[in-house]
Design a protein that fits this description.
This protein is α+β, with helices and mostly antiparallel strands. It has helices spanning 48-65, 86-94; strands at 3-6, 21-24, 27-33, 73-80, 103-108, 118-124. Strands 1-2-3-6-4-5 form a six-stranded mixed beta sheet, with helices on one face. α1 (48-65) packs across α2.
């Protein structure tokens, strides 16, 4: 299987040895994103809703670099450091997707990069 990396000038720099996105097998896999400001690479200030909006803007920018958009997303993985934030994350998330919504998993985790409260990754058709 051939794979190719996705990158772009408007994307936040990765915090490790990984690509923001990789095409392979007819799908596009985007790496987990936290609420980084693309200009500074630092986590944005704000609550779970603000972080969720920033993540989805970052994912949309990565998708745009790949010639896709959020309507092409078929699966989302959500990682929360506090499951009590689920409802607030869900409300912010709802503003970026439309019916039929992507399949989704939400998982509680102990910690996330840069001290983030939420991280998301996606699979795109």
């Amino acid at each position: 299987m051939t794979r190719s990396a996705i990158s772009g000038e408007t994307l936040a720099p990765p915090v490790g040895p990984f690509s923001p996105g990789v095409r392979g097998g007819g799908l596009l896999f985007l790496s987990g994103q936290v609420a980084q400001d693309p200009a500074t690479g630092k986590l944005v200030d704000g609550d779970i809703a603000g972080q969720t909006h920033q993540i989805l803007r970052n994912l949309a920018a990565t998708l745009k670099a790949a010639g896709k958009d959020l309507d092409d997303v078929i699966r989302v993985g959500v990682y929360l450091t506090d499951m009590a934030d689920f409802a607030a994350m869900n409300e912010a998330y709802r503003e970026h997707f439309s019916d039929p919504y992507p399949a989704r998993t939400a998982i509680g985790v102990a910690a996330l990069p840069l001290g983030a409260s939420v991280e998301m990754d996606v699979v795109v058709a």
